[in-house]
Amino acid sequence: MKQRDPDLLLFHAPLLRQGMTTPKAMRDVLLALAPATLASMWFFGLSAVLILASCIGGAVAAEWLFADRQARGESLRDASCVLTGLLLGLTLPPGLPLWMAFLGGFIGIALGKVIWGGLGQNLFNPALLGRAFLLATFPIAMTTWVPAVTDGGFLQVYPGNLALPFMQVQIDAMSSATPLGLMKFEQEVTPLTNLMFGKTTGSLGETSGLLLLLGGVFLWLRRDLDWRIPVSILVTVVVFSAILGLFDADRFPSPLFSVFSGGLLLGAIYMATDPVTSPVTPKGAWIFGIGTGVLVMLIRVFGGLPEGVMYAILLMNAATPLIDRYTQPRVFGRGGDSQ
Amino acid sequence: MTAGANRETVTPSSLRLVLTLAIAGLISGIAIIGIYESTLPTITANKARELREAVFKVLPGVSQMQALVYRDGELVVVEEAKKDEPVVYGGYDDSREFVGYAVPAAGPGFQDTIAILYGYQPAQKLVVGMEVLESRETPGLGDKIYKDAEFVGGFSALSIDPEIVAVKKGTSSNANEIDAITGATISSKAIVRIINETHTAWSGKLPAPGSEPSIKASEPTSAEGGQ
Amino acid sequence: MKNNQSYEEFIKGVWRDNPVFAQVLGMCPMLAVTNSAVNAVAMGMATFFVLVGSSFLVSSFRNWIPKQVRISCFIIIIATFVTIADYTLLALVPKVHKELGAFIPLIVANCLILGRQEAFASRYPTRLAVMDAVGMATGFLLALFSLGAVREILGDGALFGVKLFGANFEPWVIMILPPGGFLTLGVILLFFNWFKFKKDEFLEDVAEAERSGH
């Protein structure tokens, strides 16, 4: 097992390289997220920078700590843990204490990736696993939302960010509800233009729908993502809420509201499409997308929580091996069912 | 039938097997009866004390209590309520004057059934105290229904006429409104609903204010049962 | 020599063959009642009492119990001790008993206890059987306590109900919920195995150095 002689290092196939590699795909995704990331800094100022940095720091720390001593540089080079940290950071509320963000990044990589055997082995999306851990651990801090920076400019930092490690957020009077929370608990609809351009309360990355879509188109043009997954999720959500609208248009959210509110775009474009945790077959991708969309709407409309994208994707992640198994194409040269 | 060497090879007679088990069962039975009999007084006393403490807590100023059940159209004093029979506890002060009822109530919460005891003063139709007896609400959120002193304190003089309403924190203005706990709206509303429902169920059965049954024993009754 | 053997039986249960960390037995109470140190210790003591008591009886009567009905006899003995523990806890510490709930009667189904009767107490002399039971029960108690302590410190900022970090501590709610039990147990098992792995590696290195030295 031990390979201490550098001359005996083994590499596994493929030994011929193609243009598309994991580091390159990861860098494309990071690039696609850049506009939304910059927008989050625009809306939430220095707080956004600090939170994103803490998440990435936690993720990189876990990757470094648990990596084999000889392969430390190797596992960090593909930047996948940076992407995990960034994605996690974009799903967090801007007023979250930085130590929680760091912990989320660390847990996401440690429990979401390393423990399964590293990149490519994990069942669940690491960023969402980190977020699920944070939500279950710190339910109040994770659902305390602050409005975007109004005055004080870029250098303003939310007081909650600076809570000492293991200490509480001092809940300030500034907290307000997200569009989905308003819809669910107060029956109050946020104007669509606000949702599209990001002038809403919410987590760092879920405020600006249009910029997220832009990144998605970029990824699709670069062939970095399976377009079937986001398309099927969004179409399912639109159809589902349109049907609900037929029953009672006042009580249920409109299709466009459903698409642009909450973390749906972020989840559908950047998290559900994670090649490791989504099905590989085209038919499987459709099933995965439709399942996620239905679960999102079920949780949002009939569940106890205002937002359900995270749990929907995690549940479908769990179903992915099964979907893959039942959607394998027939093997050529063999009669009948390939199974 | 010699023990030891032959044990593994010779099949013992069925009689011996039966006898072994019977003796083991007998000894075990005696041991269990012994421990049951010797702990029963303590256990009963503990339960009674717990109940008394809860009743005294939800009915300030009370020093004596008795169990009351509704039988044949009127409220009667009992030593011990029958199983599954709804019971209230009448609370009386030092001068044996009636103060109010302590009413056990239960209903679905966010996770599981919440069991509470609330103090009710029929003369002014006021809820004067609330104590959570059993709950499995989420730690950190739902468990504030008994950990949040502000919420529990809100039940110290709450009008239940026509019924209690849980409102968003900081917006209670009427005598029958209570602030729900931020982050535990469902659990706080569950408490209010449980009280309202139990109140409605009892409202026809309690006698008119002033004609409550007077206390029987001068000694504090050791009321028990009526879980 | 004799003392050595009883010490050996004792220490194997505490560390090398620890019922939780090495044998992964008794997971049901392990995960269910370790949300605070007090509960964990109460559970550990109840299990201690049951295990040591039944090991003593089973070992004393091992020559009288026919093998065909041994399991039934073990269960009767264990169940008796469990009932005694149940009523005693209910009388002495009703609050803890309420928290532990159904898990006290369920000690009877703890595979650790029946396992020790079948594998050890019914074959060895009383003194060794009791030492083995004490060792195993101590190991179980320590494991329960370490889990309960970690979960209470993180989940409530306290140990045995004493606040450690002041009023502003942010509790890790998940730690006192069931998933926290799985997470903590997993992490502790990870460290236990990592430690074992490092120790074996170290011993191997030492052996190698000795070989090359000669």
Tell me what the structure shows:
The complex is a heterotrimer of chains A (339), B (227) and C (214). Helix content of chain A is 55%, strand content 0%. Chain A is an all-alpha fold. In chain A, helix 4 crosses helix 5. Chain B has a domain at 46-203. Chain B has 227 residues and is of the alpha+beta class. In chain B, 35% of the residues are buried. Chain C has 214 residues and is mainly alpha-helical. Chain C has a two-stranded antiparallel ribbon with strand order 1-2. In chain C, strand 1 and strand 2 form a beta hairpin. Chain C is flat, with a radius of gyration of 20 Å. The two termini of chain C are 33 Å apart. The interface between B and C is medium-sized, with 28 and 26 residues.
What features would you highlight for this structure?
heterotrimer; A: mainly alpha; 2 domains; globular; B: alpha+beta; 7-stranded antiparallel beta sheet; two-stranded parallel sheet; 9 strands; 32% helix
Query: What percent of the residues of chain C sit in helical stretches (DSSP H or I)?
Result: over 70%
Number of DSSP-assigned strands of chain C: 2
Q: Helix/strand/pairing class of chain A, anyone? A: mainly alpha
> Which term fits the overall shape of chain C?
flat
Residues in β-strands, percent of chain C: under 5%
Give the overall pLDDT of chain A as a whole number.
80
The helix tally of chain A amounts to 14
| Poorly predicted ranges of chain C | none
Question: What is the residue-averaged pLDDT of chain C?
Answer: 86
Please specify the SSE layout and strand pairing.
The complex is a heterotrimer of chains A (339), B (227) and C (214).
Chain A: H1 22-44, H2 46-66, H3 72-77, H4 80-90, H5 98-112, H6 126-137, H7 179-186, H8 192-197, H9 209-221, H10 228-247, H11 255-260, H12 264-271, H13 282-302, H14 309-326
Helix pairs in contact in A: 1-2, 1-4, 1-9, 2-4, 2-5, 4-5, 4-6, 5-6, 6-14, 9-12, 10-12, 10-13, 13-14
Chain B: H1 14-58, E1 64-71, E2 74-78, E3 87-92, E4 98-108, E5 113-121, E6 126-134, H2 144-147, H3 149-153, E7 158-159, E8 165-167, E9 177-179, H4 185-203
Parallel strand pairs in B: 8-9
Antiparallel strand pairs in B: 1-2, 1-3, 3-4, 4-5, 5-6, 6-7
Chain C: H1 2-16, H2 27-32, H3 37-60, H4 70-92, H5 94-100, H6 111-121, H7 126-156, E1 158-159, E2 162-163, H8 173-176, H9 178-213
Antiparallel strand pairs in C: 1-2
